[in-house]
Amino acid sequence: MPTRRRALLILAALAGLALLSITLALMVGTIQVSPIEVFSTLGSSGGGMAGDVVRNLRLPRALAGFACGGLLALAGALLQILLRNPLADPYVLGISGGAGVGALLAILLGLSATGINGFAFLGALGAMLVVFGLAHGDGSWTQTRLLLTGVIVAAGCGAVVALMLSIAPEHKLRGMLFWVMGDLSQNNDPQLALVILAAALLVSLPFARELNLLARGADTAQTLGVAVVRLRRGVFVVASLATAAAVTHAGSIGFIGLIVPHLVRLASGNDQRLLLPASALAGGSLLVIADTLARTIVAPQQLPVGVLTALIGVPVFLFLLTRDARARH
Amino acid sequence: MATNAAPLLEVRKLAVSIGGNTICRDLDLTLQPGERLAVLGRNGAGKSTLLSVLAGLRLPQAGQVLLRGSNYATHGPRKSALIRGWLPQHRGDAFASTVLEAALVGRHPHLARWDWESANDAMIVRKALAAVDLADFEERDVLTLSGGERQRLAIATLLTQAPQLFLLDEPIAHLDLKHQIAMLELVAGAARDCGAGVVMVLHEPALAWRFCDRALLIHDDGRVECGNALDMLTAERLSALYQYPLQALESEGRISFIPR
Predict the structure, then answer these.
(1) Average pLDDT of the residues in B82-98
(2) A240-254, A275-289, B141-155 — which is least confidently predicted?
(3) A304 in a structural domain
(4) Which of A25, B104, B159, B161 pairs as cysteine with B128 (C-beta 3.0–4.6 A)?
(5) How confident is the model at residue A328 (pLDDT cuts 50, 70, 90)?
């Protein structure tokens, strides 16, 4: 039986994990910094070059990674409830596709980083409105219809992305590919993403118990006292905005939004009051760890972190799937 | 409470149709606490559709559905959930969860936004699980339950919700004979002892005859008959309803309808 005490204990443990992962990200790299030095450089403005690296390069990147991972995992958890499908991920509704089209267009046009972010966000918003409008057309809003609309919009965006990649000039191709695969090395200001993560959590947590009911079916939820139509719209908007924010910031990093909620659900049950914050913490930590690996494994070369999350994600997911199937017998 | 004088469920001039098929027009109906109404008809006659209109899940083409004198929009979802409970015909669980957690959702309308389920709620759930013969199933995963066990869990969830009006869509589907009678006894007991109103879709007229005091017959052509169970559930009317000849056999105060 779910209790508040158990939820708080699990969340405290995950918060510890998040702190650990961020500390680790601040320590490792071309210049190694010990944990004690990390804390002393954070507390003051000194520390020479190591201090600068930790404060100005590693910390913003780790925090941005944490925020994006948290946003993706939260969006994944919400969409899995909305679509009543444990295998849904934040990209299934075409939002990252829209962002991709916007971002690549901006790169092709030679816009600055701000321009790329702006275009990516507009693209995500556009895809979101198209999916919402089409799926909502006659007010029926079945999960299948929403899912299919999302998949089709995503496929269309994928085609446009492929088209732009194929006509792109050689020198822009690498930047575009990195964007598509997901990359944290471009952006440095994590503030906005962190604020959006906190806001998305704050908006969804009051409705967590209603989400538990929605997971059991819309009609059942309605007869048990949930304003289903409003709740579903809200979930769609929050999940889409969270995805859009993460994708805008870091490109389409795969698997975090799919695997993390799934893992948390297997480990601690499907109570959204715990699952939503736990997914955010675990997703953030996982992305920070993956990004730390991405910039250290073949240093000074950097790998796109999306490749790493996929490489970690695929086997973990397959393992969970077979384990899940065996547990049923 | 002035509204308590109003009937538990009141239907005025109700018109319902689905896919161009008229299920009923100008249907008037009232249900008082303690009354049990059976809904019978052929497959596709619109029993479930009518029930979901009564449950506030679907809007009628015309007319009103009033719970204790007010419609669903006025009550809002939460207050409606304290008055009426609905047992769906189909259930699909997308996620794993324990039987205890699944039944606990029935407590939702009784809890405030930030409340967590208390030991008292768990006790209510355990009582409900025991009532449907699932006492040892608390920790079982709902995805591993059989059809009949899942059906009984849904009934337990409804008992946990403790509404005043039970809208049951085929409550005895998937159940073995013993549990069919046990579940109907349970529902009849709720009507007798707690003054609950019951509307249930049944496919077995003999059980409707035994457990309900009124019956609503939905014909394929949009005609609806409603009246005392004893007047409605005759071989003649049921033969016309199912468009198949039936014969009534009485024995020791019970009745059975045999297809010829």
Answers:
(1) 91
(2) A240-254
(3) yes
(4) B159
(5) low
Put simply, the answer to whether A226 touches B85 (Cβ < 8 Å) is no
Which residue range forms the structural domain that includes residue A93? 12-317
* Pick among B58, B101, B141, B146 to test the A interface (most A CBs inside 10 A): B101
**B66: domain range?**
2-259
Which pLDDT belongs to residue B3? 47
Matching residue, tokens 């457990």: B211
Yes or no, beta carbons of A328 and B143 under 8 Å apart = yes
CA distances to A87, A242, B143, B156 from A283, rounded to whole Å, are 16, 13, 27, 36
State the complex-level ipTM: 0.91
Find residues 184-243 of chain B whose CB sits inside 8 Å of chain A. none
Alpha-carbon span B187 to B18, nearest angstrom: 29
Across the interface, do B100 and A215 touch by the CB < 8 Å criterion? Answer: no
| Residue of chain A with shortest Cα separation from B161 | A224
pLDDT beyond 50 at B1: no
pLDDT of residue A325: 65
Q: Where is mean pLDDT largest: A51-60, A142-151, A178-187, B119-128?
A: B119-128
State whether A224 and B95 contact (CB < 8 Å): no
In a domain, A276, yes or no: yes
User: Are A209 and B144 within 8 A, CB to CB?
Assistant: no
The answer to whether B81 contacts A86, with C-beta atoms less than 8 Å apart, is: no
Q: Is residue A325 part of a domain?
A: no
Which residue carries 């944990």 as its tokens?
A35
Cis peptide before B163 (omega within 30 of 0): no
Q: How many domains does chain A have?
A: 1
Which chain B residue's Cα is nearest to A4? B116
pTM of full prediction above 0.90: yes
